[in-house]
Design goal:
Blueprint: H1 5-18, H2 24-30, E1 32-33, E2 35-36, E3 39-40, H3 48-73, H4 81-112, E4 122-125, H5 130-154, H6 160-189, H7 205-229
Helix pairs in contact: 1-4, 1-5, 1-6, 1-7, 3-5, 4-5, 4-7, 5-6
Length: 235
Amino acid sequence: MLRLFPIWASGIIFSVLHSQIYTLFVQQGRFMKRTLGSFEIPPATLGMFDTTSVLITVPIYDKLIVPFVRRFTGITKGFTDLQRMGIGLLVSVLSMTVAAIVEMVRLKLARDLDLVKSGNIVPLNIFWQIPQYFLMGTGGVFFFVGRIEFFYEQSPDSVRSLCSAWALLTTTLGNYLSSMIITLVAYLSGKDCWIPSDNLNNGHLDYFFWLLVFLGCVNLPVFVFFSVKYTHKKV
């Protein structure tokens, strides 16, 4: 189980990034144009694109990507479980990068249209968020499935159930860590709070997203290092 620990720990940062689907992505959407004709789109409903990406990515992965990659790797599953997890980590960082860029554009519009103090909706369509939701869902397909298979196959036979549950614990710890980071950022940024609760136009949510991109970029090479050093269990 100690051999699994570094791989396990890398999942905590992934969960921090993935948790933004249900938190700050929604907050970002609240200050974007959400009307479609006479209908107002609830910002939380864009989470369906996370699910949609899973429904699209899984068959594409099984029917197209695996057979293609298998020709080069000779591995039945195409990628190893660790490679699949690494791809998921990379895609999650790309998702946060897109979110940061969208927020930069939104804040620029807010400044140009003098909407910073008023906190009014910025006329940037909420559908610009779709790529970040889609990428995060795709990253989840790679990371979560790879993680489940890796911990089940590599854990000692007598504690396989325990190790599988242990792997899922990273989701909980990632959510707690995300809350801690937000609280710490709010405290350190003081009056110039990056994430004001009532008016994101007067904040810098883009800075927070870039911070998560940085954490993801630090986490990825650490994961690669321990993955290369990892010795697989003998079957």
